[in-house]
Amino acid sequence: MGGWWGNHAGMRGRIGRKKCTVVSTLGREATVDRLQAVDQLRDCTRAQLLEVARLAEQIQVAEGEILTKEGRIGREFFLILSGTVAVTQKGRRVNTLGPGEIFGELAALNPGSRNATVSAISDVDVLIIGPREFATMADIPGFRDALLKSMASRLRTVDARLAAALDDGGAPTHSSDSSDPQ
Amino acid sequence: MGIGTEIDGNGPHGRGPLHGVPWFAACTEEQLREVERLAERLGVQAGEVILREGRLGRELFVILTGTVTVTRAGRVVNLLGPGDYFGELAAIEAAPRSATVTATSDLEVLIIGPREFESIMAIPGFRNALFTGMSRRIREADDRLAAYAERDEGERDDGGRDTAL
Questions:
Q1: Does the distance separating the beta carbons of B85 and A116 come in below 8 Å?
Q2: Which residues of chain A does B143 touch, with a Cβ-Cβ cutoff of 8 Å?
Q3: Closest A-chain CA to B129
Q4: Mean pLDDT across the stretch B95-122?
Q5: pLDDT attached to residue B23
Q6: Which residue range forms the structural domain that includes residue B21?
């Protein structure tokens, strides 16, 4: 994950003779403090948040930067610690997300290309969690609940928008794809 | 809920129909026993309403056999069959049911109550099935929404085409 996030990392420096990059300018305890301020994670114990901080990478992203790009392959998901992002599909703004909200989880759960572009509309602090860590994260009840609630909320929103679109436009083409056994 | 009769636990060979449900394919024997312990099985007759839009309820349902329709504001939005689930939104976070679900055949369902939901979500096979299912539904709904948005724009570009139904 070092790759193209490198430009957004904190300090570069030297330890001994090796050049290194300090990825997060906050220590783990400080990250935990930030996490405790996140409303959606309020049910997590401090020990659980420490685990989250251990599994995730914290990144600061400047306003205007793109975090996920529609159509590209990506497997990480993101938890916003501070700041605001815009979610766009085919150039159309579909959502705005803020602190405590999660995005990118679809591609983490179901490998595939990103179905939206997410860009920072302010300076943003995010936690990035890779797909391998996802299973471990899902074991943390507080975090799992936050993820479930985020997805449930997203489903409600998109179902409501679909209903509104159908009301405007007329009879839907009923899709039977969802009726396949899972 | 006004629904039907309890069904005896396991089938003739001591293994219930859970094994036939793809959702539980990733569960170990022990996990399946745990699911059986936490969930309740119920039989529902064709025509019965299982969930009603706007009403309160916290249970999650998994269909073992049979089919249902899912309707919202009177419009059929989905058809579900064995291995599908419903009711998950209100199980995750208390809220009025967002759709009405009606049995279109005699039905066997697994019901997971709110107290058991937390425990059953600790079972990785079960949890992954729910996560995967929800993410797939989100993707499909997003795609359908995008298709409508594009169609609407197309109509506007046609400039004044009569869209009266």
A1: no
A2: 115
A3: A182
A4: 92
A5: 67
A6: 17-149
